[in-house]
Design brief:
- Helix content is about 10%, strand content about 45%.
- By secondary structure, it is mainly β.
- It has a single domain, classed as Barwin-like endoglucanases.
- Strands 2-6-3-5-4-7-1-8 form an eight-stranded mixed beta sheet.
- It is globular and about 45 Å long.
Length: about 120
């Protein structure tokens, strides 16, 4: 049996920009992507803590060390600068493998700089 489990999470990042004139996606600082084990064009869910909105989109790599979390295209109408978000992706794996799998989780500070654990 295969099940879907949490693979990656960026917990409580701050939206830095929203760009309605871009074709779509979420731009994420490369440092956060690395810690959360996300790759460019990977499908993610973005959950808005401030207003409850949830969207699915894909990741665009942002400048390393920039702290960028930018919602693009239609999502820019639902996510505004300074909103807090959780960004998650999932993986499908064998049930037994899932029992011991540990997701990669990034905890950014208020400027989206990763906090060292």
């Amino acid at each position: 049996m295969q099940i879907q489990v949490l693979k990656s999470k960026i917990h409580r990042a701050t939206v830095t920009e929203s760009n309605i004139n871009y074709i779509g996606s979420v731009t994420i600082d490369e440092d956060l992507m690395t810690i959360a084990n996300l790759i460019e064009y990977e499908k993610v869910q973005v959950l808005n803590i401030n207003n409850g909105e949830r969207i699915e989109t894909y990741v665009i790599k942002g400048e390393k060390g920039s702290g960028t979390i930018c919602l693009n295209g239609a999502a820019a109408r639902k996510f505004l600068p300074n909103d807090l978000v959780i960004i998650v992706s999932y993986a499908i794996m064998d049930f037994e493998e899932a029992r011991t799998f540990k997701p990669a989780i990034a905890f950014p500070d208020s400027k989206n700089i990763p906090i060292q654990n």
